[in-house]
Fold these 3 entries.
Entry 1:
Amino acid sequence: MQFLFEGHVLDPDRRELRRGAEVIAIGPQVFDLLAYLVRNREHVVSKDDLLEAVWAGRIVSESTLTSHINAVRKAIGDSGEEQRLIKTIARKGFRFVATVTETQPAEGARSTEAEPATPDEPAALPLPDKPSIAVLPFQNMSGDPEQDYFADGVVEDIVTALSRIRWLFVVARNSSFTYKGRAVDVKQVGRELGVRYVLEGSVRKAANRVRITGQLVDATTGAHLWAERFEGTLDDIFELQDQVAASVVGAMAPQLERAEIERAQRTPTTSLTAYDCYLRGLAHVQQGSREAIDTALPLFYRAIELDPAFASAYGMAAWCYFWRKVNGWMADPAEDAEGIRLARKAIEQGRDDAVALTRGGHALSHFTGDLDASIALLDRAVMLNPSLAPAWFLGGYLRVWHGEADAAITHFSHAMRLSPLDPEMYRMQAGMAAAHLFAGRFDAASSWAEKAFTNLPSFLLVGCIVVASHALAQRMEQAQRARDHLLQLHPSLRISEITTWLPVLREEDIALLASGLRKAGLPE
């Protein structure tokens, strides 16, 4: 079912909000909030209703709820002053007041199969056994043919960056550029080049500024999956070209991954390939809960069984063991050894696989404590794929533990810019919190930690930072309340055990964290 209102189309099945042909990028909780308001538009919904529906009843601050309502209003062109679409009912809650029409999506939008060729068309090329994409030449909207070289350079950089993603089949530039200057149908492009996805875009130059837009389309259905706009100055046109390419790929890759995960989840479980198992496992890892990790790990083992050379699957399996370790979920000490085995296998099999090096290298740091070796592995991952957000934010964590708080913040900030709607955003927020804590910026630390806590209250590191940062900032009531929550989740948690699950290098950083926890009353 789709909901139409005020020129917008809300499609809950595709988790997509569109205004005309433009896909509006909004966060997952903002989307859920909008969908809930639209579905329940016949009555006023209370704040408690929203907390239960969107945050599953978790404790959320008033400011968090307000900021999400404001984000919904901004996405649909409303404001707190106008309240044309979403009305605040004093002391009662909110109501969606716009006129809404419900409609079923077109049949073509639900099909996942490419259309058969007509007698006048060549037969469609078969799709590869992994995600496939073609990047079409970007349109030069500047009215200046001299800018063609810039648009072509951006596309070449994007093709090169996408080619570094080992799980992706990328059509060569020479093939995709045969469509330059032609009006094309993306479905036809998909059939002729044998790809599931097509990236198209445009470049517009005005004075000393350049605006570049890109949109990702499912060529089998014509559905728009993602759209974004990037801007910059022409002070260094080639540097801008590189930055735009990195931003496009960094922001688009998670959308591609999400589309592939959804496709895999529609695949019958009786006919799974190694890659489908890997995707299903990845979807659970992104959730971060204990139950999700318990579901993901067997899927990665199955992927390895089906393909013993699947380096990324080894890396993600090792990472599951790491996640159990840092959240106090390991029931058997022998799991450390299995985590090390899998991490080393990922690194051995995936010397040129950025995902394997990222997940395996990061997990290894927590199992062995060798931060320098792990930092080198993640730096290599960044070199192999500069647009891989996890390589940046997990590299940021290693720098936090190594005592390089400001360098870590740079890494987290870059990861957030590359992937602003990333399903693992709460991990980036938690890393920011840890970096600010060790830098002595306790207000910033608690602010970032509260954001991560909202998305995953069971994250042990986040809980510790919330407690310590409030205590060190002399906010004892908040610190003790957070301490009680932490001990409910982990009754056996002790200050003396911090270094058994965090590879913090500097004694002064360990002492600072311990001091905050001790001040709040956490047991020694």
Note: The chain has four domains: 2-103, 111-265, 268-386, 396-524.
Entry 2:
Amino acid sequence: MAIRVLLADDEPIILKGLRKLLPWESLGMEIAGQAGDGAELAELIRELKPDIVISDISMPHRSGIDIMRWMGEEGLSAKVVFISAYQEFAYAKEALSLGAVDYLIKPIEKGQLAAALDKATAFIRERGEAIRSKDKLERLEAKRRTEELQEELSRLAEGTLPARSEAYRSLEETMRAPFYTAMAVSIGRLRGGAGRWTEQERKLAEFAVDNILSELIVASGAGQYFDKNGMKMLIVAHADALKPYETAQDIKAKMNGYLKLDVSIGVGLAVRELGKLGESCRQAALALEMKYFEGLNKVLPYAEAAPAPSVEGELYERRAEIVRGLTGRDRKSALESLNRLLASIRKAAEGNKALAVSTAFSSMLAVVQELRKADVAIGGDGGFDIQGLQARLGDYDTYDEMAQGLREMLEELYAAIDNRSGRDKLQLARVKQYIEEHYAEELTLESVAAVAYMNPYYFSAFFKKHTNRNFKAYVTELRMREAVRLLTTTDLMVYEIAEKVGYNNARHFSDVFKKTYGAIPNEYKQSIRKP
């Protein structure tokens, strides 16, 4: 008798894809029906009594979690396979605790669905409470043994597991291999995402990462992993010297592709004895720290670091050069000196983020102090914000990001230094005149900065300092004022006015106009002309 399958998803294209994904009849299954929302799914489950339900975990009216609870209350025994998007992992985790067979990440792959159905079929065909109880006990025992193994490995890595202990001998028996290599894994940002993660988002990501590592490391027999100081520490038992690097690349590819996560992996050197694994773990952690200097989302092999050279004299000279550039109003020279300073800091601090941050902070602090000692006025009420600078520098994920941040800070400092010659006013007047003459053309920050012979970063700060608004807002206000004049004094069409004030797209012009005046151009025109 064919196994009866019920499909549910609020996207018709997903339902159509599921029907075509597998040769259902040859698998001994038939699709008994399909539902487009949670309420319809519950009705069909009660009516058709399916053996397997393949359902989206988040649907209108009733979620997958609601369905699972309802089935438990009704005593319905259909096996459920959930499909979900990444951000729905929290629901998936709860569903698994309620008895779901599996969950799959969209887009669904044929092999994944087939494997999930095999699992569901195995559950269906099990007979007798004795078999189910035995299976449950075995799973609990496996989980207990895995947790014990992780604890033993953690102790081994810390050097607190005696070599003659029973736990040590058990580890040797379980992970017998010619070589052992440690890898330190740190998940980073959501690919394409922005900003810092919330605590809940990080927990969801860690749950997903555990699933990937369980499949690639534990289930495959390659080794084991455990948590240590906010990272995942992997132990790979192997005979092939390239195996750890192949495993690391596989993990990175899966996390990039399936979970859309950046991941950095430090790889220690292989050891022949399990008792020396602590050294490989230490090396893996050191290699992982190099992500700050080498960049994120990479596999980083351990290499013995050369002694750091003394660069104190270089740092002093570079800071002096920056001060000379700033006091001489030579922005290019100041930036070039900063770049040389950054190169010196990297040379001295390679492999040590804390040292890089503290040296960069002390250097910028020294520059500001030298400027003030030289009676250089830093405009406004204190001008350049040195407060909290060290925290700002420490917030960057990589050295290159911090270096760019320092360049932008130097531009801020350059803009904050008072220039009493009146040259700024002349430059600003020329810039405003140019904008008024060319606002109907395609104006960019870079093109107008070139008119003032300034770097775009400095020009942006310069313009805001002297006008109390940013460049884009200033141009938009000018264009909108002219648009109102043309609307109220001419019979030009909206698209013609848009072109005359610098917008090639009339729709975009209307959107900006509405955001500025609260009405689209024609509505505004009619309201003005009403008696």
Note: The chain has four domains: 3-125, 157-301, 312-416, 423-529.
Entry 3:
Amino acid sequence: MRPNDLALLRTPGTPTVSPDGRIAVVAVGWPDPDADQYRSQLWAVPTDGSAPARPITSGALDTDPAFSPDGRWLAYLGTEPGGRPQILVLPAAGGAPRRLTAHHLGAGRPVWSPDSRRLAHVARVPEHGRYGTVDGIDAAAEPPRLITGLTFRRDGIGFLRDRPSQVFVVDLPADFTDDTVPAPAPVQLTSGEADCIDVTWRPDGGELAFVSAQHPDADRDLVRDVYAVEPDGTGLRRVTDGRGDCALPAYTPDGASLVVTAVPDLGPDGLDFVARQAVPCRVPAAGGAPEPLLDAELHQRGDETPGTVLADGAVLVGVERRGAVELLRVPLDGGAPETLVAGQFTVRGIAAAGDVVVVTVAHDRSAGELLALTPDGRRLLTGFGRELGATGRLHRSEERTAEAPDGYAVHGWVTTPSGPGPHPVLLTVHGGPFRQYGWALLDETQVYVSAGYAVVQCNPRGSSGYGAAHGRAIRGGWGGLDAGDVLAFLDAALTDPDLDGDRVGIMGGSYGGYLTALLLGRTDRFAAAVVERALTDPVSFAGSADIGWYFPDRYLGTEPERLAAQSPLAHAHAITTPTLVIHSEEDWRTPVEQGQRLYVELKRRGVPSELLLFPGEGHELTRSGRPRHRLARFEHVLRWWARWLPTEQNPGVGDPHGTGPGA
């Protein structure tokens, strides 16, 4: 895969299935570098495979489709260039869509009422005078913000308290075909400064449940509860007990219970989050504590499977396991779970209706395809990844296991270019740390392999997908077991004669950038490095990051000596490795000062180094940043590696600084 191949990347989202199970509809998105925008269309896919998938919308960015329970309507979010997402409704039998909302900051995904006449959703409500609500007042002229709590800003959003997310309900127009009559205005059901998210309907339509943090001192812990409210905005009540982190509620068909994804207990102060695994739980609709349906020591719900899907007395859930995300059917009565999709796949979306389950499944050759599961077996429905695969520039990963210094088994992958070796090596380290590399098409890996590098990546202790104990192992000791695991896996990989052990670089982002920077202070074995959006100083991170007020305390500890031992910046004086530092100017997760301070320390000591800053971007640059920025980032990274580890496919073209092998 080359950087320009980003335009060929097709990524399907979570599907919706018509009530009779015959048709799935899914949003398929792709980056458009020429327009510097993302595009997305809705595609209709017959679940019996009788006809090929076809696009059914032509908006600039159409996402989040949802069939009405009666099958007559398809609601979705549509975003026009320069606009915000709004809810549109399309007749399933054919016709023109009609827009139902005009929220100033955009609407969230639509959720149908049981009678198919109303749609619930959430939308951010800006404080008057902010975010362009008054013409002629730009951001620089707004009044000052008075901050009184710890939770006030989030990466990718910005400030929170002056634009909280609230629950709304909007009726369908009485005469859908007469667009000269204004659609009913959405009715706001909730209020206050706390975000309200993940709204869902009770089966009789008499109540809605949602997730929020409205307890006393909610800005000082990570607790989120399920709340319920009536469709007229009255009867607000708390459903869960206020000790854990709840998300994605769904009522059981009888309305007597809710199934939620939850970490049931975050400890007495509500901050015990390290490697606490989220699992499906059942809670009485009348109120109570969530009861796990899976063992949270062994299972972790995949972040990429939004929504809670109930079917035939069970919840369908994606669970992380050794680099995969498997699909489990978990009975609500406490029976043994059944694995429906396993192996070298990542389940990213789930829907069910009639007698069919449709899942979005990614693997190392496609960013996602639809798979239908029926009583007669499974059926692949789409070929969205076919065009990218036809380039011949996708490379298969080889699964490997190595032994750490203490005998622990470290699991990972090596992806090697075609043609004879030995190939120079890039050791890449994932973020998190409670995340996993795995069986999904990763543009990063594919671009580097196509440029002539063997890519080595593993899931060291601290990663998810191997149980809670594996994730907790590095608590209070970042740069210990995790660093040992990564280097042991690298050393084992380098015994392969196709890999050049004398030409090795290292790179990582977020926590991966942290571990990269820390290792650079301990060894000069790497030819060069890329440190991206990294936590480099836990002390300043605590006062500048959106999660800084709790994250380093719980993961690294609070003792000054222990923090210094785990701080890359405290050991940066020993770094001699040429280092490219990459950061986004609006990154609130790992603020830009973290990268700037590392760069300045290296530069003033004469270490070959560069600082690459992206304006207008946050922490998610590599995954959802502007397409041209993603393309530019790849070009700069490949330029850096061409300077220090040139290959036939990525040759050095001269070193502007007069040092390095490209000179």
Note: The chain is about 15% helix and 35% strand.
